[in-house]
Amino acid sequence: MNVVSMTGKSSSRPIVTENDYPELREAVRRICEKFPLEYWNALEERDSYPTEFVDRLTREGFLAALIPEEYGGSGLPLRAAAVILQEINGNGCQASPCHAQMYIMGTLLRHGSEEQKQTYLPQIAAGKLRLQAFGITEPDTGSDTTKLKTRAKRKGDRYVIYGQKVWTSRALHSDLLLLLARTTPLEEVKKKTDGLSVFLIDLREAVGNGLSISPLPAMINHSTTEMFFDGLEIPETCLIGEEGKGFRYILDGMNAERILVATEALGDGYWCLNKAVDYAGSRKVFDRTIGTNQGVQFPLARAYVELQAADLMCRNAAAQFEAGLDCAASANMAKLLASEAAFKAADVAMQTLGGFSFAREYGLERKWRESRLYQIAPISTNLVLSYVAQHVLGMDRSY
Ligand SMILES: Cc1cc2nc3c(=O)[nH]c(=O)nc-3n(C[C@H](O)[C@H](O)[C@H](O)COP(=O)(O)OP(=O)(O)OC[C@H]3O[C@@H](n4cnc5c(N)ncnc54)[C@H](O)[C@@H]3O)c2cc1C
Prior knowledge:
- 46% of the residues lie in helices and 16% in strands.
- It is an alpha+beta fold.
- A hairpin with a 2-residue loop joins strand 4 and strand 5.
- The longest helix is centred in the middle third of the chain and has 37 residues, at 246-282.
- The chain is globular, with a radius of gyration of 22 Å.
- Bound molecules: flavin-adenine dinucleotide.
- Flavin-adenine dinucleotide (FAD) is lined by residues 134-137, 142-143, 167-169, 218, 222, 224, 373, 376-380, 382-383, 386, 398-399.
């Protein structure tokens, strides 16, 4: 394949590699080569989790990229972690089975006590504990997080939890769960964002003792679950930070989450685009390659332009995050642009491959389905637009 890179040079390497952190990218790529499309297709057929892939990334320290060195991680900047996720998706693999460990642990790092950090972070960094599950969404409350109904009531030096969470990804493949629950009823708080608390729960002890988890089969292989809390008792030491301040702690972590997920989405987009450009250059119809036709070229060129624009926004947001600036607007905009650019690239690639895009062996239909998610989770496009309208443009809050 022969793609013009960002520097204007012709390259036979995938577009996604013409970038920063070349050694990190190369290291991730070497791992991804060992997990080809057949591996992912076989997992999907069995609704299975990519344990070997995640173990490999964990062993080689990639999932501890953001854990500071003093706790056994590599203390890399957010951009480096984003590059790891982008490379995973950009090489045909799937980062979603393990991406959450990168951003969930930020809440523990920023708001946990020193004792909690010493207890968990070195073990997470060493791959002895998995922190992959994050329980916020509930069946009835949707994006209106402050209305969530899961309740944690104090009982002496313990909390007792009742409620239900939905779409909790990877809960059956994680040792720990970061949970957002209401500790003070909505009617008793001054601001609706008050009275929510964050808990770090050991799932190995909780399951079967007041917590049950069931798989929630979905359009993509995402290890999604439903969780039912029916009087789960946890020690008060599970509370992260101060009781009632949990909503703010979760908000604090959202910029990192948005930037990581946005950059990950770009990986899907670039992978699909590469596939399509390759195919367009070799598939002959009417005695010439289909890529000779502008009707095939232009949508691919536009998809590239849009991926590059989103890429720049992701880098900008990551740089602002690293500099300690307020990056909420950039992180949200990066997520919006990347989610749309990635799916558009996947869709254009489907059109380019014609009927073969539906063949499972090409992996494209899987990427098309997977890349659709980013416009909905972890936050849907309309909610991002509401944020920009209100907080950037100063317009009235619309909800
Ligand atoms: C595969 C998958 C994995 C997930 N993993 C997790 C996880 O690990 N942990 C977790 O907590 N959650 C998870 N989620 C949930 C995800 O974060 C939510 O689905 C997402 O935030 C959207 O919430 P909702 O589905 O309740 O949509 P709703 O809030 O019900 O919204 C539905 C639609 O209405 C629109 N809408 C709502 N309110 C407004 C408004 N005021 N203005 C304009 N439009 C509006 C939304 O934009 C959306 O398009 C996952 C979801 C999926 C599908």
